[in-house]
Write a structure and sequence with these properties.
The chain folds into 2 domains: 177 residues, 3-Layer(aba) Sandwich (Rossmann fold); 205 residues, Dehydroquinate synthase-like - alpha domain (Dehydroquinate synthase-like, alpha domain). The radius of gyration is 20 Å and the shape is globular. It is α/β, with parallel strands linked by helices and 389 residues long. It has 15 helices and 9 strands. The C terminus is likely disordered. Keywords: NAD, Oxidoreductase.
Length: 389
């Protein structure tokens, strides 16, 4: 039995893509627009999905999703949806195509501009449920967007904002671990750390939701035992299944909110000239936010240690640092080409981000500035002094 019903309808099993046509029929849809990116097309996954699901060869495809989804791409895909007479969106790929698909479905039935619906601009009550159905097919194990109520989209002015509403949760998630077999080690590591960060940040959120916390800890446990294996051996089916479940569980817990790691990575992700991968940013920033949050979350850190398989009293942030090194991820933001001047300009955006309010410890401009310096490799001492405060 592959069906899970939690927040939405989820098909989770090897070979689940064969169920796409059946799920479309249950939604009363017959002509989806496939929203994806060029890398997914080049990997042959769209042809594979069409064949397995029995979709017509002429099913339209929008493959121009940028690495970080943009307002311009949302509008282009929305126009394609209308021109092709589509009645559903089939999102295939990592977090970018999945988030873009949510934006497309939104603007099919909602008037422009897109910014009207951003969470920090009071957009949630403006989002109605009258959107075409979205089916989400993740091809990486990290974002959790297949069950998330948010889409992160960079507007024309450069702001990367969250669009959040229950109706943005895809109608169906098709989670097929076979789609991640052979995913390159670097991408496996970066997306895997995205899942790890989701599980940790949602668990540390001060909102009261014990079921979500239990799910977050299970997801973290799976990721910690499987991520290194998946990076070492892309064909390790058991590790791939655990990582896809960890990513799904991270997404299931988004209801609790995230934290400063995501506030900072969202701000950095809107950079117009640098290609900064969201999961990699999370991996680099996470240890510093963990050190900052520690004084306010001591009891929860004990549960994190258990889920991570660490001994009593072990430093959780140091364990994440070690994991990043083992996975071959960058040691700091400076290595990724980020400068202190750029981070300084992004402090207000990070503070205003929708994730800031649910950080495990209250955080404002001074703290965000110190965390950026620490993640750049320039302010480690300052970050540790904040942690002791």
């Amino acid at each position: 039995m592959s069906l899970i019903t939690y927040l939405t309808r989820i098909q989770f099993e090897r070979g689940a893509i064969r169920l796409i046509a059946e799920e479309l029929a249950l939604l009363g849809a017959a002509r989806p627009l496939i929203v994806t990116d060029r890398g997914v097309v080049a990997a042959g996954l769209i042809d594979r999905i069409r064949e397995a699901a029995g979709l017509p060869a002429g099913t339209p495809v929008f493959a121009e999703t940028p690495e970080n989804p943009t307002e311009a791409a949302v509008l282009a895909a929305r126009d394609r949806f209308r021109a092709e007479g589509c009645d559903a969106v089939l999102a295939v790929g990592g977090g970018s195509p999945l988030d873009l698909a949510k934006g497309v479905a939104l603007l099919v039935t909602h008037e422009e501009p897109l910014s009207r619906y951003a969470a920090i601009l009071g957009g949630l009550p403006r989002i109605r449920p009258d959107q075409p159905p979205v089916l989400a097919v993740p091809t990486t194990a990290g974002t959790g967007s297949e069950v998330g109520r948010a889409a992160l989209i960079t507007l024309a002015d450069g702001r990367k904002l969250g669009f959040i509403a229950p109706s943005l949760i895809p109608n169906v998630a098709i989670c097929d671990p076979d789609l991640t077999l052979g995913l390159p080690p670097g991408l496996t590591a970066a997306t895997g750390m995205d899942a790890v960060t989701h599980c940790i940040e949602t668990y540390l959120s001060p909102r009261h939701n014990p079921p979500a916390e239990a799910i977050a800890l299970d997801g973290l446990s799976r990721a910690m035992r499987a991520l290194r294996r998946a990076v070492r051996d892309g064909g390790d089916v058991e590790a791939r299944e655990d990582m896809m479940m960890a990513a799904l569980e991270g997404g299931m817990t988004f209801q609790k909110g995230l934290g400063a790691v995501h506030s900072m990575s969202h701000a950095l992700g809107g950079h117009k000239t640098k290609r900064l991968h969201h999961g990699t940013l999370n991996a680099v920033i996470l240890p510093h936010v963990l050190r900052f949050n520690a004084p306010a979350c001591a009891g929860k850190y004990a549960a994190l240690r258990t889920a991570m398989g660490l001994p009593e009293g072990a430093d959780v942030a140091d364990a994440i640092d070690a994991l990043n090194r083992d996975l071959g991820l960058p040691r700091d933001l400076a290595v990724m080409g980020v400068t202190e001047e750029e981070c300084e300009a992004l402090v207000p955006w990070a503070v205003e981000d929708h994730s800031t309010a649910t950080n495990g410890r209250p955080v404002g401009p001074e703290e965000i500035r110190a965390l950026f310096r620490a993640a750049l490799g320039a302010g480690e001492a300052g970050a540790r002094s904040h942690a002791r405060a």
